[in-house]
Amino acid sequence: MWSDTESKEDYLNFGEVSQIVTEILETEAMLPVSIGVFGNWGAGKSSLLNLIEQQIKPDEWIIIKFDAWLYQGFDDARAALLETIASHLIQAAKDKETILQKSKNLFARINGLRVAGLVVEGAALAAGLPAFGLVSKIFETAQNALDGIQNETESKQVVETVKEIVDSEKNLIKSKEQQTPPKQIDEFRKEYGEILQDLGKKLVIVIDNLDRCLPANAIQTLEAIRLFLFLNRTAFIIAADEEMIRHSVAEHYKDLSYRHQIDYLDKLIQIPIRVPKAGVLEIRAYLYMLYAIHQKVPTGKLASLRQFLENHLQQSWKSQSLNPEEVAETIEEQHNQTLLSDFERANRIAPLLANSPNIQGNPRIVKRILNTIKMRTKIANKRQMPLDEAIITKLVIFERCVDYDVITKFYRLVYEREGKPELLKELEDNNEQNLSTLSENKPIQAFIKEWAKLEPKLSNVDLRAAIYLSRETIPLNTYTAQLSQKAQDALNILLTTTSRTGSQGTQDAIQQLTMDEQISVMDALVEQLRKVDNWDKSPNGFVGACLLAENSEDGARILNRFIIGLKQSVKKPWLNTALKNANWYKE
Predict the structure, then answer these.
(1) How would you class 443 by CB atoms within 10 Å of its CB: exposed for 0-12, middle for 13-18, buried for 19 or more?
(2) CB 329 within 8 A of CB 343
(3) Which phi-psi region, left, alpha or beta, contains residue 421 (left: φ > 0; alpha: ψ -120 to 50)?
(4) How many whole angstroms separate alpha carbon 534 and alpha carbon 437?
(5) How far is CA 267 from the centre of its chain?
(6) Residue 195 near residue 90 (C-beta atoms within 8 A)
(7) How far, CA to CA in Å, does 27 sit from each of 200, 233, 554, 568, 572?
(8) Which of 263, 220, 188, 175 is nearest to 69 (CA)?
């Protein structure tokens, strides 16, 4: 199995992009600068940030990593970002008394901004009244802000410094005149610039997971960034799903036109960089690395394999072929038959994983698919089921790339024909006459044709054991394995319900879900809806998702975001009618 976390190694040939970003940062004339790293969920934004961070020279830069999502619900996003920056400046200046005092003043001024009403909303604050509950937050935020400071003693020093600041009221609450917004902001920017100048270093703030935040938190973070724009020796690198941020802008600033949504982001992001889409060659190299890690190939050989694959990708214009035996021999693993078998499987499945509309070469989805395959393989081995991993792999890919209806029809044929449906034999023989019995959708038909050609051939295999093994993951393969039994039952009901009012059983299933289960089930429903290519009529799961949205505020937010994106490409009267009276839907 593989961890679902960002990688610090370059498995997808992101090195060229990370080098471009590093060159921009090292060019003095380009500073100050804000760089946007844009990409869909799971595309590799966080991994690309890790590569950029590794290439930045620590003796020239102060590097601050800020995860906006971590602070959601605990502190104002603007204050959290400002205090994180101030905390790291205090740490950088700990041995330089003059600069340290300026850093302390900077930290104190943040509370001045709070009191002035620039950071926390509220009528009392806007009126300039002290916000007594805010001071205590500095302790919590300062402690949480030290993710980049690894030494425990140093962390305590910073927190003690913050206590010293808080204990000194004269540093926190200034006169009425000094609390005016323009003065506080001007002084903040001035002190910040002087500190960096005195330190002789530049500062880069890396902001990740902004697109996971609620609209209000995302906008607060972006507004805090504005304070630092056009300040010398400063750079921001912001990783996010561009469409999600635009949705947050639209949600926060009501009635804003689409053009102004774009303008808002463009004014904050000077250099947009999009994570390269992984094609067949990149996905194949990614699979080689994942399989090698799973087979516990020694670290040194892994490094050699990564370098070999990176060189191959850079020279792919010469040759795109990749021989598993030659690759294994390069790292002296030519006698590892299991690894060779994995490499050969990678060659076979990479085109489907890269080109399928439901995967599109998304690294995180690819990794989750492999985890599903390994999970099923382990279960099959424990139950002594006669199933080769290659067979399981082929069926998991099928489930991930077609509609729920197609899965149901195909697996019904398997049972009706005692594990060996005639249709599968026909498809393997390039007879597509009866393909429409599975689906009339042209893209899905095209996928099934390619899938049927994928080794191993299945027409002579009794697939009933494989279908039995996958029965709990048929609805949503990679997601349902993470659901409780209660959530899985509710998901199955919601996938098949057609009544817009919902039966008593449907309502009971929804009411029994916890808040976390509501979110997980809605995620699963939306994932199923993303697979749908034909929206001429309401697809399976749509009505169920609407019913869940009516009973779950968090679920409604997830579905609302999906529908907003969907309506840009789907113009169907039935969809407008379905949404007309939906109290959870907001454009």
Answers:
(1) middle
(2) no
(3) beta
(4) 16
(5) 24
(6) no
(7) 16, 11, 44, 39, 50
(8) 220
Residues 195/56, Cβ–Cβ less than 8 Å: no
537 DSSP 8-state letter: S
Helix (H, G, I), strand (E, B) or coil at 66: strand
Burial class (CB in 10 A: 0-12, 13-18, 19+), 187: middle
The predicted pLDDT at position 548 comes to 93
Give dist(CA 379, CA 382) in Å, integer.
Answer: 5
Distance between CA atoms of residues 429 and 449, nearest Å: 10
| Token pair for 547 | 């019913």
Look at residue 204 and give its three-state secondary structure.
Answer: strand
> Alpha-carbon distance 42 to 4, whole Å?
10
| Rounded-to-integer distance, Cα 308 and Cα 443, Å | 35
**Three-state DSSP class for 65?**
strand
pLDDT digits (tens, 9 = 90+) for 28-77: 888 888 888 887 776 777 788 888 888 888 788 888 888 877 766 555 66
Side chain identity at 159, as an amino acid letter?
A: V
SS (H, E, C) 216-272: HHHHHHHHHHHCCCCCCCEEEEEEECHHHHHHHHHHHCCCCCHHHHHHHHHHHCCEE
Cβ atoms of 86 and 103 within 8 Å: the answer is: yes
What percent of the chain is helix, strand and coil (3-state, nearest 5)? 60, 5, 35
Question: Residue holding tokens 């469409």?
Answer: 243
CA distance 265 to 36: 9
Q: Judge whether 515 and 481 are in contact, CB under 8 Å.
A: no
527-563 in b/e form (b: 16+ CB < 10 A) is: bbbebbeebeebbbbbbbbbbbbbebeebbbbbbbbb
- Beta strands (DSSP E) in 5-112 are 33-38, 61-67
Distance of CA 571 to the CA centre of its chain: 28
Report the 10 Å Cβ neighbour count for 386.
10
Angle CA(531)–CA(395)–CA(437) in degrees, nearest 5? 65
pLDDT, tens digit, 9 for 90 and up, residues 75-120: 566 777 777 877 777 777 777 777 777 777 777 766 655 555 444 4
C-alpha span between 441 and 403 (Å, rounded)? 10
CA–CA separation, 112 vs 109, rounded Å? 5
d(CA 366, CA 285): 12
485-496 and 542-551 helices, crossing angle to 10°: 120
DSSP letter at 571? -
Task: Give 292-299's long-range contacts (Cβ < 8 A, gap of 24+).
Answer: 292/331, 292/339, 292/342, 293/2, 294/1, 294/2, 294/342, 294/374, 295/336, 295/338, 295/339, 295/342, 297/331, 297/333, 297/339
In sequence order, what are the residues at sequence separation of 6 or more whose Cβ sits closer than 8 angstroms to the Cβ of residue 274? Answer: 37, 38, 39
Would the pTM of this model clear 0.70, i.e. be above it?
A: no
